[in-house]
Write a structure and sequence with these properties.
The complex is a heterodimer.
Chain A lengths: L1 H9 L6 E4 L3 H10 L7 E4 L8 H20 L23 H10 L13 H8 L9 E5 L4 E4 H11 L6 H12 L15 E7 L2 H5 L13 H18 L19 E2 L2 H7 L4 H4 L8 E13 L7 H15 L18 E4 L1 H9 L4 H11 L1 E3 H9 L11 H6 L16 E3 L8 E4 L8 E6 L7 E4 L6
Parallel strand pairs in A: 1-2, 5-6, 8-11
Antiparallel strand pairs in A: 3-4, 5-7, 7-12, 7-13, 8-12, 9-10
Helix pairs in contact in A: 5-6, 6-7, 6-9, 7-9, 12-14
Chain B lengths: L1 E6 L11 H11 L17 E6 L2 H12 L12 H8 L9 E5 L4 E4 H11 L6 H12 L5 H6 L5 E7 L2 H4 L14 H16 L22 E3 L9 H4 L8 E7 L3 E4 L2 H8 L5 H5 L4 E5 L1 H9 L4 H11 L1 E3 H6 L1 H5 L5 H4 L4 E3 L7 E5 L8 E5 L9 E4 L2
Parallel strand pairs in B: 5-6, 9-12
Antiparallel strand pairs in B: 1-2, 3-4, 5-7, 7-14, 8-13, 9-13, 10-11
Helix pairs in contact in B: 3-4, 4-5, 4-8, 5-8, 10-13
Classes of the chains: A alpha/beta, B alpha+beta.
Chain lengths: ~450, ~375
């Protein structure tokens, strides 16, 4: 009966279950298992099997009817409580080796040793911010757990961060909790991984590497902040492989990318943070989820005309099935990232190109045949079911007009909607002529920027 | 102080809730705290570290007080023991076989392994435990009904095929116990899984009025020297395969005599729920009796047909039963049967198992059933 009630309640139809007194506990148990712990129950006193008709009538009119009315006029609660260690509770005492084993066995670490988050270490992080430890930065799916300043500090300690990184970590979790980013998609099967880009004077102040080996481990700020991101996804959002994280292959967390802001300033180019709307000189983090990347080695030439085709080709090659974020699923949400080494950016700048002009030229060149675009979206894949043509999608308002300027299947179409969708960062070995391209996961990890608040006085 | 790193054997739902929080409320309402004073009081982790001068004793005391045992001492489900158990299957420890009703703890391979360790299983027994757990998670088993009913039903686990002998699952002397680790531990692992992942705690969730010893364990194997084709072959599996078959047994009734005596026990009020719910029953036949029947040229099917024909309840007796007066809806094959009512709908509803000592004594057993729907669930082991 309770199952029927549960189905009815889920369909929006009020219900109440008549239950003999002796079965009340059982009813409550069943209701909890059905996910509706407050499923209404009306008590029939005693047991109907041993009551005369007169007794039963008296019991029903005297007690049960009130329960029926009450049950039919109230919505059952669905909230469930998750009893977890309280914030600040000591969960374990032991040697550092034991702490590591305990955290690993309970699924709280990524498999590498963690720094035990002792009270002293956590407090050192908390001293770097004026914010209250209990302040909620957001609520994160899938575990619906509250993201607090305290849990940022705890995971920062574990990841191997220094206390002075705390303002960066807080900005990152504000970005993670921003609905535009879409953290709830972090366990999807293509298993894309987030890249964090840092801007502002904080790069130099905290010692982020932005020169040779910019995406390589070996620099505490870049490495530990990247690791923090993944630990927070695990421990607070609740993304666990074999459980809530369904990434087919996944990817290691990415080392933080810091831009070479001196080079950008000299060229008069904007930073990623500025492109995202922040003022020049602001400290900021930008997060974006990328499906994968590749290096464009040995970019050869002295003029933009020689360089742009190769760079654009790299973007066009990387954005394959990911065109479903350009049209169809989430129109105009594909934002590939091109990282230029300073010497490549300077060569383009010397030719008089602003970053925006480079974006425009890349947009013109990063094109593929419409036939190929359609195969990625709904031929070789079934990502856009029904094999719609780009013409169909434009008619339905699911693609920009640029994708259907003719119906020639061999016409060239862009892989992003607008020039500014191609993000350009400048970093890496200043004197090497290599670039790097990342394809983007669209709205399932959309580019989100947050300013980094100054640390505590 | 020594430390034991133990995997918590209790159930967690897909939503992350622990079933103990529901159980705590039921225990408090029903005044059952004396049995489980620490219900719901445990660290909400996968693994707990228990430190004590005698940590085995301490784990036993803690688990009993939290309600995680069947009353007997358990083997602490240490990480290394649970990992050794999980290592006999290629399945991921996190793989979930299903939710155990009624409280819906997830039966992950690791959680079942923890309960199998506690029950006393050796790692090689684990494949049988997994097959048995998969069988009882089949909707036809009606786990919710079995766990919450006021009747005393228990799962009957029958192992058939060559693996039974290799694992030392007893089909001979004392097949229904005691004395054989495999029989004792495999059946107990299934019960602990039902208690700890499904929450079928006596008095709190399970309203079985009396319970029964079969609720500790009820697991036997079929003799390989049966004169008839073995159960798993009869059910369509290859001879070299091994299977677990699960029935809902209301109880175990020993019957000394031949088929006539079994028929007379079947045709009694012991079969009342079997008849009401169109149940499937089991009959264990001693090897001595089986050989005699086979020598007379009688097949298993002949035996089933004979029992179906001979085990008949006089309508007058049925009319006088308590259950007849209580339950209104009886199946038409009973209400329309005339004066002699069959106990089961079809001969096929009788499962014949050859087991027991190789003695010249006609020892048989009858397992009436409880509940719906008709249930005889078989899973291939491994």
């Amino acid at each position: 009966m309770l199952r029927a009630s549960a189905v009815a309640e889920e369909a929006g139809v009020p219900s109440v279950s008549l239950t003999c007194e002796g079965f009340i506990g059982q009813a409550a148990t069943t209701a909890t298992g059905l996910g509706l712990p407050g499923l209404p129950v009306a008590i029939v006193p005693g047991h109907v099997d041993v009551q005369t008709v007169e007794e039963l009538r008296a019991n029903v009119l005297g007690v049960t009817v009130d329960g029926v009315v009450q049950g039919l006029t109230a919505a059952p609660e669905t909230a469930s409580e998750l009893l977890e260690p309280a914030p600040g509770e000591i969960v374990f005492e032991g040697t550092p080796d034991e702490v590591n084993r305990f955290f690993y066995e309970n699924g709280w670490s990524d498999g590498l040793p963690i720094v035990p988050p002792t009270m002293e270490r956590v407090e050192a992080f908390l001293r770097q911010t004026d914010r209250d430890p209990d302040e909620e930065l957001g609520v994160l799916l899938p575990d619906r757990r509250s993201a607090t300043v305290l849990s940022v500090a705890v995971n920062g300690v574990m990841a191997g961060c220094r206390p002075e990184y705390m303002p960066v970590l807080l900005a990152l979790i504000e970005a993670m909790a921003d609905p535009r980013y879409g953290v709830e998609h972090s366990g999807n099967t293509p298993g894309a991984e987030t890249l964090i880009i840092v801007n502002g004077p904080i790069i130099r102040r905290l010692g982020f590497n932005y020169q040779q080996g910019a995406l390589r481990d070996g620099f505490q700020a870049n490495t530990s902040v990247g690791r923090f991101w993944r630990l927070y996804l695990r421990n607070v959002a609740g993304f666990l492989p074999h459980r809530t994280d369904k990434g087919t292959f996944g990817n290691t967390w990415r080392v933080v990318l810091a831009e070479n802001e001196e080079a950008l300033r000299q060229m008069g180019w904007t930073t990623i943070a500025q492109d995202q709307g922040l003022a020049a000189g602001a400290d900021a983090v930008t997060i974006s989820r990328f499906t994968g990347g590749t290096v464009l080695a040995s970019v050869f030439g002295t003029r933009p005309e020689e360089m742009i085709p190769y760079l654009a080709d790299g973007i066009a090659r990387m954005v394959a099935w990911e065109v479903i974020f350009t049209v169809g699923m989430s129109v105009g949400a594909q934002r590939p990232l091109l990282v230029l080494s300073p010497i490549l950016a300077q060569t383009l700048a010397r030719a008089g190109l602003s970053k925006q002009e480079v974006q425009r030229r890349l947009f013109e060149h990063a094109r593929i045949p419409a036939r190929q675009f359609e195969r990625y979206a709904g031929g070789w894949t079934n990502l856009l079911p029904g094999r719609p043509t780009l013409g169909d999608l434009v008619k339905r308002g699911r693609a920009a007009p640029v994708f259907a300027e003719s119906d020639d299947p061999d016409r060239l179409v862009p892989v992003v909607e607008k020039p500014e969708d191609i993000m350009i960062a400048v970093s890496g070995d200043p004197l090497r002529t290599n670039a790097y391209v990342f394809a983007h996961n669209g709205i399932l990890g959309y580019t989100t920027t947050k300013p980094i608040r100054p640390p505590a006085r | 102080m020594e430390a034991l790193w133990v995997v918590l054997p209790t159930g967690q739902r897909a939503s992350g809730e622990w079933i103990d929080d529901t159980l705590r409320r039921r225990v408090e309402e029903r005044g059952l705290s004396v049995r489980t004073p620490l219900v719901g009081r445990f660290p909400r982790h996968r693994v707990e570290v228990v430190r004590a001068t005698d940590p085995v004793e301490e784990v036993n005391a803690l688990f009993a007080a939290r309600g995680w045992t069947d009353g007997l001492p358990i083997t602490p489900p240490t990480l290394s023991r649970v990992e050794a158990m999980c290592a006999v299957t290629t399945r991921q420890p996190s793989e979930v076989l299903g939710e155990v009703e009624p409280l819906r703890g997830e039966a992950s391979i690791e959680k079942v392994a923890a309960n199998a360790v506690m029950a006393g299983c050796a790692p090689e027994h684990f494949v049988v435990v997994l097959a048995a757990v998969e069988a009882v998670l089949d909707p036809a088993f009606n786990m919710r009904g079995v766990q919450t009913t006021d009747e005393n039903v228990a799962p009957l686990v029958i192992v058939s095929g060559p693996l039974a002998a290799r694992l030392g699952i007893n089909a001979g002397f004392g097949a229904l116990g005691p004395g054989w680790r495999a029989n004792a531990a495999i059946g107990r692992a299934l019960r602990l899984t039902m208690l700890n992942l499904g929450g079928g705690w006596p008095g709190a969730v399970s309203l079985a009025g009396l319970g029964q010893p079969a609720r500790y364990t009820l697991c036997l194997a079929e003799r390989e020297d049966s004169p008839w084709p073995p159960l798993h072959v009869e059910l369509g599996h290859r001879a070299e395969q091994s299977t677990v078959t699960v029935l809902r047994a209301e109880t175990v009734i020993n019957v000394t005599g031949g088929l006539a005596e079994v028929a007379s026990v079947m045709a009694s009020a012991a079969s009342a729920f079997t008849m009401l719910y169109e149940g499937r029953v089991a009959v264990v036949v001693a090897p001595f009796v089986a050989r005699r029947l086979a020598a007379e040229g009688r097949s298993k099917d002949d035996v089933k047909r004979w029992l179906h024909a001979e085990a008949r309840v006089p309508r007058a007796a049925w009319t006088s039963w308590w259950l007849k007066a209580t339950a209104r809806q009886w199946p038409p094959w009973i209400t329309e049967a005339g004066e002699a009512l069959p106990v089961v709908k079809e001969p096929e509803d009788i499962t014949i198992v050859v087991a027991g000592a190789n003695l010249a004594i006609p020892q048989l057993a009858y397992f009436p059933s409880w509940g719906f729907p008709p249930c005889r669930i078989t899973r291939v082991i491994g």
